[in-house]
Amino acid sequence: MITAGSIPPNPNELLAKPLLDELISDLRKDFDFIIIDTAPVGVVSDSFLLNRLADVNLYVVRADHTPKKYIEEATTYFKENKLTRMYFVLNSVNMNAIAYRYGYGKKYGYGYA
Description:
This protein has a single domain, classed as Rossmann fold (3-Layer(aba) Sandwich), CATH 3.40.50. Helix content is 31%, strand content 18%. It contains 4 helices and 4 strands, in the order αααβαβββ. It has helices spanning 11-15, 18-30, 46-50, 68-79, and strands at 57-62, 86-91, 100-103, 109-112. Strand 1 (57-62), helix 4 (68-79) and strand 2 (86-91) form a beta-alpha-beta unit. Its EC number is 2.7.10.-. This is Tyrosine-protein kinase wzc.
């Protein structure tokens, strides 16, 4: 684990340097997964700067907690190709409040409603 340490006066400049690219490249040789945790998309530019290094961008949202506008903004960034290979993870879902339906007939249906 490499921690961020103290906040530098110029974080964007540091994230854009080739030295970070070299570090990630070296780490890829030794590790199957490299996880970089950033602030939420749109709050600061970290996510956009680190997008070039990411194999996958996971946007974690909490059910009944994350404001819808944040999800809409993230979706817009994806559609505009500002963030690539983006996936959403929905957590804290109350499974007791979800109806489970299974059916078979002229049309096959499976899933949660």
